[in-house]
């Protein structure tokens, strides 16, 4: 790098064929520089002394300019554009190589054009961020750019979580461009300047009074004052008179105030009283030995050079260093072979006829080289390390943040471009990695205007609007949410209760009045209602306002206070259990397999048992009956036949277990079929609804209409507006065939309220959108943020649920008679069983009597000879005989069995003994 630089240098020298000997001989005995500033200003007075002191120090140090003497010519521009320009032009006629100053941004803009033409570097103290070294290559800012000061203010505003500030400033380059930078920096942190209060550079105190009255009417209470000491003092005294220096206000003054305080302190107590609690910034300079030497000599220096005593401010320090920078740059300039020579400006020759003698202005031939030397300067001065970065900014921009308390001030922290707000001086942070995160930012506590340490809220209700005008939808259907009471003309409902409870939690009083919106015959259009806030007809809207994208573009929402989302409501039919419900638990296959298993198990047991078990013996017909009887009686664990073989018992045991499982499953399934409500609807959810072509209902005014058309692609002709719960019920009842609707799409809270009274309908599927309801405030309203916090607190302490329970209910279909009804079982579910049983009885009886009749006929042949006795006909006698036959035959097996028992008493005993 150095080698390349030397090469370029050698080339440069070679090209201009300047002999090396010129190195020494080119140093003149006197080098003229200029100084341009407003002599009678706060900064100018200090600069005057600092420049003189620096020039003397340079001239008394032989190592700097090595014999050449620095001579400074001063010019008073007085910050006046016209006079300043003339002054500067006049003294540019004397051959000067560099200018220290100007201090005024207005003058700096004008002089920069002249410096560009004449190649004279300006070491300016103008802080206007728009003065760039790209447009003005000879403009070198030897103080901090206001861009950084405004960044510091924006970071403070962000740190204290304020969102809007009011800027009061002078309408000149300094004020306007500084505040423009503040606006940019605030916007980066999602804050903004809500009002720009601007006064003219020739404003009178009464103008300022009018201005501050308009500021007081604003909502924001954060005021950034970017002015100069003359106006600043007036602003503070007027503000104090208007009680704007009291509780709730925050004043942030830019560095003009710290310079003023540093220069003239101690100030009269009256002036200090006007600015208690004000925050101001000061360009941060490191505490070095050189700085403390200058500070300790300062009193003597002011007496020596200006015959007065005043303090040293940051601009004085930068002015002192600027002179040294020029001297060191000139030294390097001479070292690098620069010569001080001037040439006539050909462009000015045409003006030779005028009496102004502008042709006397000449171009400094070495201007470019000197400017480059200044840009490359690197030394430690009274302001710390004095060095420019590649963009022409002084390195390490940093500010002290000062709180004015009592008769003095206190540093509450620092801001540096390197690591944001901190309570330790920035020098200690430069060695650590840069950490700009908000969490890392820290400031000491502040005593705010009104002598409070509590951080001001930053805004208040504007004086001009006495009460918040709160729009409230005047609902027609679902009046529980919010509606106007026609008798008392007040609004009430769930949403109103939530709002009043939330407002009660705010740490300050909010005056408001509700204004119903809607014609009372139809629910209002919610989009229009919300738009009223954007149009400033209402200051807020309270009601069942869904948070949807369409509206978030217009307004700010609070946190949702109730969950919502669109659902499909459709009529459902209870699937009634019919007479053959007892067959439903098993499918046909199951019934068949179960029946088959009974036969198989019966047969298996018979095979295993019949050789050793008397119960399974007998005539084949009887054995067949035993098989069936045995296997089916296991169904009820009522089999009487003993199983004696081990294998038979094993099979039976397993079979009984299978039967147990089948039986209990059947019972459970049948129970649920008979007692649990089975609901059914042809619509299965939103997607089956979209696919169909039946009409769909929606609530008048709801966003559901647009949502279905735009997001779901449902044709608008299918949508049918419905105004009230009654209309919902009617339209659903009628069904799509009769001019009703197949389903209603609406938000869950409404539907839940609807279902609390209506049992014939149900929500189909789940919510297909997720959202919530919130209150509406204008964009960036600070009240919206506080209301959100209050709503979250309501939710956390359970009040939100209590309000919900008071107005709405979560139960679905509360009708009591219905509930009991649904648990009782009707005959209709069972008549099939009774029928089967009845038929079985009848068939059994019929077969029985048929057999009896056959036997009767066989045993008693017809007796024709017997005459009729006692009035009984012949057939009558036959019936009598038949019944006595039945009676007789019934007794016969009994008699026979007792005979049998009597015949073989011994065998019976043997069996008993055996068993
Ligand atoms: C200097 O400014 C003060 C006010 O700050 C004023 O009273 C005084 O007249 C001014 N002097 C000159 C010479 O302009
Ligand atoms: C000019 O002279 C100085 C000493 O006075 C010397 O350090 C420097 O290198 C010289 N420069 C050139 C270009 O000869
Ligand atoms: C510059 O112009 C002045 C007259 O205005 C003249 O006297 C002088 O010789 C000129 N210098 C050069 C280098 O042309
Ligand atoms: C100066 O102006 C006069 C006329 O006013 C003109 O004749 C003369 O050429 C001009 N001189 C130069 C150097 O342009
Ligand atoms: C400037 O000087 C300091 C020491 O005074 C040194 O640490 C730093 O590297 C120098 N910067 C440049 C760019 O030369
Ligand atoms: C200020 O900080 C920004 C970002 O941290 C950085 O890009 C910029 O170079 C810094 N400027 C100076 C003069 O240090
Ligand atoms: C929002 O919806 C309304 C209808 O409710 C419509 O008129 C308006 O154009 C929509 N706005 C945007 C930004 O989509």
Automatic annotation (TrEMBL):
Give the region (Disordered) as residue ranges. Answer: 884-915
- Can you cite an annotated GO cellular component? membrane
Provide the leader sequence positions. Answer: 1-21
Q: Where in the cell is it found?
A: Membrane
Domain Ionotropic glutamate receptor C-terminal span(s) in chain numbering:
469-810
Q: Which cysteines are joined by disulfide bonds?
A: 759-813
Give the principal location in a single coarse category: membrane
Q: For this chain's UniProt record, which GO biological process terms are given?
A: cellular response to oxygen-containing compound; response to wounding; signal transduction
Q: Does the keyword Transmembrane helix apply?
A: yes
Q: Which residues cross the membrane?
A: 588-608, 652-676, 830-853
Q: Where is the composition biased (Polar residues)?
A: 899-909
Keyword Transmembrane part of the UniProt annotation? yes
Its placement in the membrane is given as: Multi-pass membrane protein
A Gene Ontology MF term for this entry? Answer: ligand-gated monoatomic ion channel activity
**Record's keyword terms, sorted:** Disulfide bond, Glycoprotein, Ion channel, Ion transport, Ligand-gated ion channel, Membrane, Receptor, Signal, Transmembrane, Transmembrane helix, Transport
Q: Name one Pfam family in it.
A: Lig_chan
Per the entry, what this protein does is: Glutamate-gated receptor that probably acts as non-selective cation channel.
Q: PANTHER family of this UniProt entry?
A: IONOTROPIC GLUTAMATE RECEPTOR
- Recorded family membership: Belongs to the glutamate-gated ion channel (TC 1.A.10.1) family.
The name of this protein is Glutamate receptor
- Which lineage do the record's taxonomy fields give for this organism? Eukaryota, Viridiplantae, Streptophyta, Embryophyta, Tracheophyta
